[in-house]
Design goal:
Blueprint (H helix, E strand, L loop, with lengths): L1 H8 L2 E5 L9 H8 L4 E8 L9 H20 L5 E5 L1 H12 L3 E5 L4 H16 L3 E5 L21 H10 L40 H4 L4 H15 L3 H4 L12 H5 L5 H9 L7 H22 L21 H8 L6 H13 L4 H14 L4 H11 L5 H12 L14 H8 L4 H6 L19 H7 L14 H18 L1
Parallel strand pairs: 1-2, 1-4, 2-3, 4-5
Helix pairs in contact: 6-12, 12-17, 14-15, 15-17, 16-17
């Protein structure tokens, strides 16, 4: 009886991962409900696959942990930061504090699942309480099944199943107070982790982004108060802020998808095309995790394996020019430069630059996926892999390989007056709108007046798009005929 009584007073470790928020955090809320002391913890794990996916997201993590630490302090507690293998770190804290339980919110990436499954087993054998909670997704990937009991491979039936399943659970509010333990364990200093990139390429990130759950909630409020009106069309326009810009906050768990979903439910136009389109984007993210859960090698292996036989050129010089935004195709270059400068890229342009890499340059989609992992603040193991496979035509419910985006007409359609290109490719700022997306076809007088010298102030195209398209389709026919 004394042991039970003592355990009722022992601390609970709440292990934060990519759920860096106090709002709608079911592990945290459930720990607080017990009335026992809570030890908030973030572990910089030895497993690199479970932390930030690249340098851009490491920048975000540094600032996100700063914001979370400040929020937890307002609740009367302290965020503990430690490095190492998760089991070793947790066992040491348990030893130092007498904690008898570890609560966390579930992860759905392969590396995270592997760590958590083993940890739950070994801690439970030691008589410790472990509890995991939902929250990163609105629907558990293991529970959404087709009529035959298998996983989905096509998005539309998946969306219909989610839509028919009713509303996700109501989000839970953040606790006002966190009961502190008598003694906190030691904590490392965030600045010692070296998360901020050593290169100056992240210098402009803070002009575009403010990490933290407070910023996420503010963005959500701004979006639902006005930006969502017209979202179905404005999300495609490169020159205006027509999207929610919540993706990096979602990627680091500073806001839950359920909180976003329920914020749209209360709108007067809850059944409008704009709201439905936005909700479908949230469910597209759920679909990505559904695919990753059932295909754990999705970030490195084509779901349609026949594409592994496609004759990739993998030219290093072409890849470097693509990375640095020096392809000679303005909409592609603008996107890649936006990515480098701000750690993000307009969603429509992501598709354009992805198609250009895979089909115009015949470079393996996995190289693009790895570059995006390192440079996107919203890098996500499921969405990144699924979207690259979608563009490459080798994934589940993917765009057909023979759909090759024309970078000129795509630019003219989605950056009509060239405002996006002018912002990110300033050497073309004075080009007339009629020529800004194909300066290599402009009359010499037009180029001279705009101060553009092809091959000097702005590169000539690295490929002839029409010939590159024919080459890509020929490579596709070869694998199709061989199948």
């Amino acid at each position: 009886m004394d042991d039970v009584h003592q355990r009722d007073k022992s601390p609970i470790i709440v292990w934060f991962r990519k759920d860096l928020r106090t709002d709608d955090n079911r592990a945290l809320a459930s720990a607080v409900e017990t009335g026992r002391p809570v030890i908030p913890l973030y572990i910089r794990e030895d497993n690199s696959e479970t932390g930030p996916l690249g340098e851009a997201q490491a920048w975000w993590l540094h600032h996100s942990l700063t914001a979370l630490s400040a929020q937890i302090e307002t609740c009367g507690s302290r965020l503990i930061l430690l490095s190492g293998e998760a089991e070793t770190v947790l066992r040491q804290i348990i030893k130092d504090t007498g904690a008898s339980a570890v609560f966390w919110n579930r992860r759905y990436d392969p590396a995270g699942i592997k760590v958590d499954t083993k940890l739950k087993e070994v801690l439970s054998k030691d008589g410790l309480e472990t509890a995991s909670f939902a929250g990163a997704l609105m629907h558990e990937p293991s529970r959404v099944k087709t009529k035959t009991g298998g996983p989905y491979r096509v998005y539309t039936p998946f969306w219909r199943a989610i839509e028919a399943g009713g509303e996700p659970p109501e989000p839970v509010d953040a606790p006002e107070k966190l009961p502190a333990p008598k003694t906190f364990p030691r904590s490392e200093k965030l600045n010692d982790w070296g998360l901020l990139p050593k290169l100056e390429w992240a210098a402009d990130f803070s002009r575009r982004w403010e990490p933290g759950e407070a910023s996420a909630r503010e963005k959500l409020e701004d979006f639902t108060d006005g930006t969502i009106d017209g979202y179905r069309e404005s999300r495609e326009r490169t020159w205006e802020a027509g999207t929610s810009r919540l993706s990096p906050h979602l990627a680091m768990g500073e806001i839950s998808p359920a909180r976003i979903w329920h914020a749209t439910r209360g709108l007067s136009k809850a059944d409008s095309a704009d709201v439905i389109t936005f909700r479908k984007e949230l469910v597209w993210r759920e679909f990505a995790y559904h695919l990753l859960f059932h295909n754990p090698d999705m970030p490195t292996e084509s779901l349609n394996r026949k594409y592994d036989k496609l004759g990739w050129t993998n030219g290093d010089d072409d890849f470097d020019r693509w990375k640095t935004g020096m392809t000679g195709f303005p909409i592609v270059d603008a996107g890649m430069r936006e990515l480098w400068r701000f750690g993000t890229m307009h969603n429509r342009v992501r598709m354009i630059v992805g198609s250009f890499l895979v089909k115009d340059l015949l470079i393996d989609w996995r190289r693009g996926e790895r570059w995006f992992r390192d440079t996107l603040v919203d890098a996500d193991p499921a969405s990144n892999a699924m979207n690259w496979q979608w563009v490459a035509g080798c994934g589940a419910d993917a765009s057909p390989f023979f759909r090759v985006f024309n970078p000129i007409t795509q630019g003219e359609k989605f950056d009509t007056d060239g405002l996006y290109v002018r912002e990110h490719v300033p050497e073309l700022a004075d080009m007339p709108s009629d020529w800004i997306h194909h300066p290599f076809e402009a009359p010499s007088a037009v180029l001279a007046k705009a101060g553009v010298t092809l091959g000097e102030t702005y590169p000539k195209p690295i490929v002839d798009h029409a010939k590159a398209r024919d080459r890509a389709l020929a490579a596709y026919r070869n694998i199709k005929d061989a199948a």
